[in-house]
Amino acid sequence: MKREKPFGCGNFSVVGPVKGKPGQFGHAALFCKSYRCDRCRKPKLKKVRKRISEVAEEHKLTRMVTLTLDPKRIPKRYRKRTDRYIRDCWCKMRVLLTREFGESLLFVGVLEFQKNGNAHLHLLVGRYIAQKWLSLAWQSIGRVSM
């Protein structure tokens, strides 16, 4: 008895009419397009990096900001999911930035994880933000109990 291969990224394809070309048929492989997939990760990251570059250039996002978390201040319920905590903190930070500058801040953000598993946030922003003010504001958000 022949065993069927389990579904794997790119193992199957679809066949059908080609859009915009009457009478022609084509085929395409079914890819999962997941960051976890060894086959799909590199092309997906390449597209994402290109798009970030396009958006940054279009909106003149020329300044880099990195926001990290103090592991001692992360509430217990967020210790295993620091990405959720930093996103909540970033939402509060955006409110402070809007109050400070009188308008919403344009940004592009990338969430990454440190070797210790804690999330940190890289941002490209379009305006100057004094480092001292930014540090104090970010620390004040970390002190807020959730």
Please write out the topology:
Blueprint (H helix, E strand, L loop, with lengths): L12 E5 L7 E5 L11 H18 L4 E6 L13 H20 L5 E7 L5 E7 L5 H13 L3
Antiparallel strand pairs: 1-2, 3-5, 4-5
Fold and architecture overview:
- By secondary structure, the chain is of the alpha+beta class.
- The chain has helices spanning 41-58, 82-101, 131-143; strands at 13-17, 25-29, 63-68, 107-113, 119-125.
- The strands form two sheets. The protein has a three-stranded antiparallel β-sheet with strand order 3-5-4. The chain has a two-stranded antiparallel sheet with strand order 1-2.
- Strand 4 (107-113) and strand 5 form a beta hairpin.
- The radius of gyration is 22 Å and the shape is elongated.
- The N and C termini lie far apart (58 Å).
The largest pleated sheet is described as:
3 strands, antiparallel
Total number of beta strands: 5
What's the shape?
A: elongated
- Secondary structure category: alpha+beta
Strand order of the largest sheet: 3-5-4
Span between termini: 58 Å
Order of helices and strands: EEHEHEEH
Oligomer: single chain
Calculate the mean pLDDT score and round it: 89
Low-confidence stretches: none
Give the percentage of residues in beta strands: 15-25%
Q: Give the number of helices.
A: 3
The percentage helix is 25-40%
Question: What is the compact description of this entry?
Answer:
This protein is an alpha+beta fold. It is built from 3 helices and 5 strands, in the order E-E-H-E-H-E-E-H.
What characteristics describe this protein?
146 residues, alpha+beta, two-stranded antiparallel sheet, 5 strands, 35% helix
